[in-house]
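Review form for a predicted model. The reviewer records the input and the model, then writes brief findings.
Reviewer: anonymous (R2)
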Amino acid sequence: MNIDKDIKKASTPSSSFYTSKKIFNKTKSVFENSYQYICHESELLENTNIPFYLLENWLDIPLVVTKEKNNIYCLSNVCTHRGNIICNKKNNQKKLVCNYHGRSFNLDGSINHAPGFKETKNFPSKNDSLNKNINLLNWNGLLFVNCGENKLILKGLNEIKSIINWYPFENLSFDKKASKTYKINANWALYCENYLEGFHIGYVHKGLSSDIENQSYETTLLEHGVLQMAKSKHKNDSIGGEGIINGIPSNQIYALYFWLFPNIMLNVYKWGISVNIIEPISKEKTRIKFISLPLNGLKQTHGKNNSIDQIEAEDQKIVLSVQKGIKSKFYNKGRYSATYEKGTHHFHRIISSYL
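Model under review:
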């Protein structure tokens, strides 16, 4: 896949990018070698040892996050004896205990007890512990892990931090009731593409369109991501704060939509932040994790026509329609709107450099 760097000349990826099993399998390595959002630190109860099970059945990499006093660890969730999954639910035990043969581990991943191994020579070794050098990043309370070596997301996060260094991240906490998981029968990249352009808002999101100044919609390309934003028609709906972004005071901005390659969306609203994680299951099936992180004392908004739930439903409907269309023998590829689709073009340029 080769996408011309000049958006005015470029064509979109061919339909095989979305329909080919071979290409889909190649993209797996992109995800395995990138930082992925796992949870907010508020999910690890304060002053308690909480093993936290996560990323189950995704990319075949079971992980567990543990907290011991002020230390947070990300460990392999697979017993080093015979490969049994150790943690299957959140708990406050002081050890990680395998229910297959009783081997136990400390919360930092080091081996604690191994029944039946007194006669085994050169045991235990470092390979018998769970700490497998998995990179854990705590960014303003949002926890990311990386099972590979690619650290380009750090550049994107640093850019975001410089843009919203005034934001009160310390006041965010996880809202389990408002957080949801969806599965849709569409390629993961189609969902990202839809997110990365505001071109469709006036046609697909009538409620949202009535709240923002569509002519002010702006896309800014980041080194490893994209920022989209627009002015609010009503000052009471703005994100507030005392920042200035691209020359616009934050108290005039409706929302900030940050995307980090390949699949992380950080959305900044008046009430708090939402995180969308786009997880490829197969070439035509995608899991969307929506995480709600409201500010203290506030709740996620639930309007009739402009709520996040309504916008999500509208986005999924159009993405499913595109999924059907790209399989038509009469469609291969299209052209970009140089005015409105800079973010989508940027995404395609990055993914093509990996593939």
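Findings: Residues 2 and 324 are 24 Å apart (CA to CA).
Further findings: The chain has two domains: 16-34+169-354, 36-139.
Recommendation: see findings above.
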